[in-house]
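Posting this for the archive.
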Amino acid sequence: MKNKKDKEINTEELNEVIGLSKKILKLLYFVFIACLILAIIIAAKQLTVMTFIIDLLKVISPFFIGFILAWLLKPLAERLNKYVKNKTLSAIMVFAVFVLVLLGILYIFVPTVYNEVNELVGLLPGFVESITKNINNIFKSLAESGLNLADFQHKLLTEITSFSADIAKSLPNTIINLVVSLFGGIGTFLMGLIIGVYMLIDYDSISEHFKKLFPKRMQKDVHNLAARMSIEVRRCVNGTFLVALVVLVCDSIGFALVGLNAPLLFGLLCGLTDLIPFIGPYIGGATAVIVGLTQSPLIGIGTLIICVIVQIFENYILQPIIMSKASQTHPIAIIIALLVFGHFFGILGMILAAPILTIARVIFDFAKEKLANR
């Protein structure tokens, strides 16, 4: 009887082992996808293919912009088409509303942000003086306790003064260069808008022509794969941008309430950096807190509290409600992709890392399903 009991299988422990094994395998294949993307990027760079690809993307950027806009606005055009019953008119109306909203945002934000940047540059000497005073007090206390760091103090103050002088000198020029580059890209963007209208009108026929590039036996699979990629990426992009917009609004209001200088500028910074998964919110929040501390300890603490509250609100309310299961990719795989794309493509690469990894995951899952069904 005892031997029989010893031989009985503990199903609970077996289920735990199987569940853990599945999680480990899932993690390993996410890491494999990220490593595969890294290998492709490194190989392309070593073979000087990357330079050619970047130049090619610059040339076809209006088509890329047009496709992205058509893809993003397609659901709105489909809903409007139920009432208008005309694809061309629906596409034109949707793009007209998009342009008006974009112009309205620029009209509200650009002058305000520009004024706040000028205000921040004017307040920079006061910030530096406040930081210098606090550093001197800290080193004075250390000297009274018997720790003499006069040389280090001198070097630190020199670096801070030099850094602030460089910012005060380069920031206006940077803004001017940014505005010039934006105006230089207006032509490309307008061309992208026009192409986007035509693509949205003929979106279904373009999809059909694209499918015909593949053999007939593969066309159904290509259609299913493209549809799945579109759903997953749209869910990820829409959720990410909506969360970033809410963070921008909440942070801007909170910073204004605690008395932080240039609240809209730092709210915009927090919203933009929030597009970068995991590390983005800390980049924008830390910048705002540092500036707040240079104004006064109370404003710095208030800014920190606002950042923490908004992050808690985002992590425990916004993410579950808005994002839901928008990105089913493992966090470790996303972090690896962030490091890789951030290294090669900077901030833009970090923003695009999650959508690209989502596409790679969908392709890998689809391929795995097809192989399993054979």
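The longest helix spans residues 87-144. The chain has a mean pLDDT of 75.
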